[in-house]
Amino acid sequence: MKDLATNFTMRMDVNRAAEHLAAAIRFKTISHQDQSKLDRREFTALHSYLRVTYPLLHRMLTREIVNDLSLLYTWKGSNEGAEPILLMAHLDVVPVEQGTENDWVHPPFAGVIDKDFVWGRGALDIKNSVIGLMEAVECLLRDGFAPTRTIYLAFGHDEEVIGMEGAAEISRTLRERGVRLAYVLDEGGFIRIDGMPGVKKPVAMVAVAEKGYLTLELVVNEAGGHSGMPPRRTAVGRVAAALCRLERNPFPARLTCPVRAMFESLGREAAPPYRYVYANIRLFKPVVMSRLSASPQSNAMIRTTIAPTMLKGSDKENMMPRSVSAVINIRILPDETRESVTARVKNVINDPGIIVMERKNSSDPSPVSDVRSPEYIALKNTILDLFPDTVVAPFLMVAATDSRHFASISRQILRFSPSRLSQEDMNLIHGTGERISIKNLEEIMTFYAELIRRTAL
Question: Residues 117, 71: one domain?
């Protein structure tokens, strides 16, 4: 990464920033599907900590508390006619899996700093970006930077549980004010340090779209009864058969625009024979699709996926259930919809006795952002200037982020934070032993400061 001195007159104190991240980790801002389990005091305490830690930011920017626990900051630009930008992260983290606490190098909420790392839940997902953005803005203000465009900073409190109370409310607030955003930057992409097949350089993955999110419940209602006298066809058997039919008949594989764009970008840097394959992806499509289908990670890029996640039947081992249900979570490729996917699920199940119901908080796939747009190009150039050893490639994100709530007020939504991760490191996100290097935290701070400087003028 280029020396910060070549880009700014200011200086960032990375050791102090590491202490700030460690302190933020100590607030147990755990989100829950059951809102009654939410410890609101932890979130409000984090709000207070940020206010004390970044005094210049809180003096120069307008802070709003949205829906009690989310934060929206407005850094007013000098040109009211210029479309503003929005930079995002989230305050909440996932719980630590019970029974794994002793497997952590340091306690998950201790916020320990050792020689090279900051340890704890949220170090990668995604309090590193919260602190990185705060540090960047505080330093830019100290350096006298004044934006032309208005800049919004948005920190939701329930991203890990779909974001309907946090980011969705922030989006609604801005929409009601008539705000249209030039671009949104959220989490999602990262720098894959171990490259990609045929590409030895680290790859900066910028998500230009994300798959849709749909949860369906399959329900069969029967008479129930004693397990000693079962009917020939049981409710459990019917639901199980439906799940088997869905697994035997997956959605067809397709190369969407983001995936094709990814291969085109990788092809420019790939070594033979990958370069030829990536450059002629249509010619080699059968081989490519076969290889991608072999791995759960890459298979998710090329097809709408169905994952059975919950089953419910009888509460007793000797009682036939009166109602049996299965929950399936579906991630939808671009160009498909919840309606088209639900129709196909019903057709594959082919059992009129199974009720198929859509659960709340589902969403269609996001629009695909344009890799030729000035916003994408500015992001790409920022990455290449600060991380000249990387290859920048767009991709399709298979998970969901808070950014989808802003699709109605922005034409360009991009998902990237320069966390340096290997394939093995990715398991730390939501996993055991989450941590970030202090050097990478410095890179994240610098990235946000440089991106603001370039795109807010």
Answer: yes
